[in-house]
Amino acid sequence: MQSLMNLAGGFQGALEPMVLLYCFIGVLSGIIIGALPGLGPSTGIAILLPLTYGMNPTAGIVMLAGIYYGAMYGGSITSILINTPGDSAAVVTAFDGHPMAKNGRPAQALGMAAFASVIGGTIALIGFVFLAPIISTYALVFSSTEYAALYVMGLTAIAGMTGKSVAKAFMACMLGLFVGTIGLDAVNGTQRFVFGITPLYSGIDFIPVAMGLFGVAEMIAVRDEEQQIQLKREDIRFRKLLPSKEDWHFSLPHIFRGSILGFFVGILPGAGATIATFLSYDLARRTGKRKDKFGTGIPEGIAAPESSNNAACIGAMIPMLTLGVPGSGATAVMMGALLMFEMTPGPFLFQKNGEFAWSLCASLYVANIIMLILVIFALPLFIQIIKVKGGVLNSVVMGFILVGAYAMNNSLFDVGIVIFFGGIGYLFKKLEIPAAPMILALVLGNNLEVTFRQGMTLVRGNIFSFISRPITAVILLAAVGLAFGKPIHSVVKKISKK
């Protein structure tokens, strides 16, 4: 009851006219930034952080929270319409979002992404209010061994992305793990596969690889096959934005599951929305009523990752606000903003600055509603993107991709990485090799290696002590079940028929 009263007081602060205005500006800016390939929540918050100097602390942090929230949805716009994820968390949305747009349902795809995001954010906010004090305590229980097990479980999502060939999927996964090892060893600083090339010392960033594998490869493939998304006038009317009863029937269970999963994954420092979306999509594919249709353009393939995505955003706020431990890159930048406003994150934030803290929590829900309103009114504008002639659209998108890649580190080397992996992505398409396993392995590979080696150091090299930790053992058992459950079930089913 006390939490509800505190939240009600937070809404009073969040609904003040000036705070609402800054929240609106933040969400709008976030959607635009999130839709630009190569940028994302962290970059957007960092770019616009100077604008908050001298602001009222509540208004300033609410604006940054709006950027964070808006950017998470913005990445899905280009992911759905042109198969170019705006940021890493939007990669999974492209699996079904772009095929759905190609099938003549771009409005429904964008609408499902928006509604799933709002529902996911709402569920996560409820969890934040009631569970934050308890969960924030257990988040600290996770050591390197538990994180290593979590990353292993994340890699089991490959089992749901195999496409026509399991061998090809695991080959892509191994390639992703290899790319993740390039650079300096994070533990002892040893050079690995750098061949004297200075930019490789810092490793290969995930974003240029994703932009190449998905965005550049898609543009080459579309031009090569002369495919364009065909739209009729009735396809972009407002009512097309609303999911049908059938869409809701298939998607709602995945929205609720994805929201809960994303919330808990977001709480774990370092896990982030990207891992949450992969796990949520894999769970949806395993438990869905239309398992065989995932990847062909079905709404539940959008609903699961998008709800998980935004739920993870709010989940990541818990360790940042209550423990002073950022749960993601974006919350790390926001933590810097809090310190700038002389608000120290940690156990005493809600005691000493309760009004400010609860206003921030309430503003996340307000940002939810603002985002939905913006999507409803801006839908025709979004859809115009795919009505542009193919040659012009490809040129503009390629320009955004290359500029975004360069802007990450002001380096032409990143531009070369995008083009190189664009060629690999095109080759993958021709050979029918799924790109998703490579992306997942690249995202998780480095963290898996570091946490595993740290965990082995913690247990003095005894692998049995490593897996004997209760939480670690439970997670690893779950990973084994996810990886081999489907094949075992198929074998048992065949035997039972005989």
Protein described:
By secondary structure, the chain is mainly α. Helix content is 73%, strand content 1%. The protein is built from 20 helices and 2 strands. The protein has a two-stranded antiparallel ribbon with strand order 1-2. Strand 1 and strand 2 form a beta hairpin. It is globular. The N and C termini lie far apart (58 Å).
Helix amount? over 70%
Question: Which strand order does the major sheet show?
Answer: 1-2
- Main pleated sheet: 2 strands, antiparallel
Percent of residues in beta strands: under 5%
* Residue runs with pLDDT of under 50 for 5 or more positions: 487-496
How big is the Rg?
22 Å
Shape: globular
User: What is the CA–CA distance across the termini?
Assistant: 58 Å
The overall pLDDT average reads: 77
Structural class call reads mainly alpha
Order of helices and strands: HHHHHHHHEEHHHHHHHHHHHH
Structure summary, number of beta strands: 2
> Please, how many helices?
20
Which key phrases capture this entry?
498 residues, 20 helices, 1% strand, globular
Quick gist of this model?
The chain has 498 residues and is mainly alpha-helical. It is built from 20 helices and two strands. The N and C termini lie far apart (58 Å).
Task: Give the arrangement of secondary structure elements.
Elements: H1 2-14, H2 17-35, H3 41-48, H4 57-82, H5 93-102, H6 106-139, H7 144-155, H8 166-181, E1 183-184, E2 191-192, H9 206-225, H10 245-267, H11 272-287, H12 300-322, H13 329-340, H14 349-352, H15 354-383, H16 390-409, H17 412-431, H18 436-458, H19 463-468, H20 470-497
Antiparallel strand pairs: 1-2
Helix pairs in contact: 1-15, 2-3, 2-4, 2-15, 3-4, 3-13, 4-5, 4-6, 4-12, 4-13, 4-15, 5-6, 5-12, 6-10, 6-12, 6-15, 7-18, 7-20, 8-18, 9-16, 9-17, 10-11, 10-12, 11-12, 16-17
